[in-house]
Amino acid sequence: MARAPRVLVFDSGVGGLSVLAALRARAPGCDFIFACDNAAFPYGTKAETELVERVDKVLHQLVRREQPDILVVACNTASTVALPRLRARIPNPVVGVVPAIKPAAALSATKVIGLLGTPGTVSRPYTRQLIADFAADCEVICLGSSRLVEIAELALRGTAPDIDELRAILTPLFTNPALDTLVLACTHFPLLAEALATAAPRPVHWVDSGDAIARRVLALLSGPADGPDRGFRALFTGAAGSDILHPALAVRGCTEVAILP
Fold first, then answer.
1. Considering all CA atoms of the chain, what is the largest pairwise distance in Å, rounded to the nearest integer?
2. Cα→Cα distances 202→101, 156, 172, 199, 207, Å
3. Which member of 30, 138, 186, 254 is catalytic?
4. pTM of the full predicted structure?
5. What is the pLDDT of residues 159-170, one digit of tens each?
6. Which residue of the set 30, 36, 75, 138 is catalytic?
7. Measuring CA to CA, which residue among 202, 13, 6, 37 is closest to residue 110?
8. 186 is known as an active-site residue
9. pLDDT per residue over 88-133, tens digit each?
10. Taking Cα atoms as reference points, which of 66, 7, 61, 41 lies closest to residue 186?
11. I need a surface site. Which of 29, 98, 153, 193 has the fewest CB within 10 A?
């Protein structure tokens, strides 16, 4: 019997778990590996050259070790700068995360949308070009927050988000009363979806890339993706702090945790 397709989901922190959840919902029969480069966390504050070198090095190590059929770079920051190099050097299909600007622009009735990501993602030319290509008819209010990434990491370690702090972070996005759609342009942020909706001053559409990534991976798979959910294995590049995540990983279906040598 042929083995199940192996899909490696990579991020600098726990944000990739939001993408992994979407993948498992559509392709539960795959052999999933969640790889977290926590030794170099966070990516959002790093210079582009440093980031590309780091991502390239770690992913080549992971590909040699795990032999995945498909590699998912479940990090907006890494995807906006490292995908061309990865696709040129790794023979396997490499799927990246694109901020969901196009579907948000189509969904918005008022044509005023918010873009919430890391400082690096919202300021990079790649993101600006996406706005020009797919949201030229919209007003796009951009906000970069590294603190939200930290809050998401802490939430999976058992620290409940402070709704007042979230409300203060979101306030600049809601200065225009016409804003009706908000793009979560960091894979960490869907992990806070319920808390963010509570903190928002009014209901809006929240849009992320998880399901679009899952559909793309499903289209690329050559083996059967249905069947019972197999859970996933987790790999970390550093031991520090990873043990605190074990309960949250177990609840989400993690069957094994290992530290890369």
1. 58
2. 21, 26, 13, 9, 15
3. 186
4. 0.91
5. 999 999 999 999
6. 75
7. 202
8. yes
9. 999 999 999 989 999 999 999 999 999 999 888 898 898 999 999 9
10. 41
11. 193
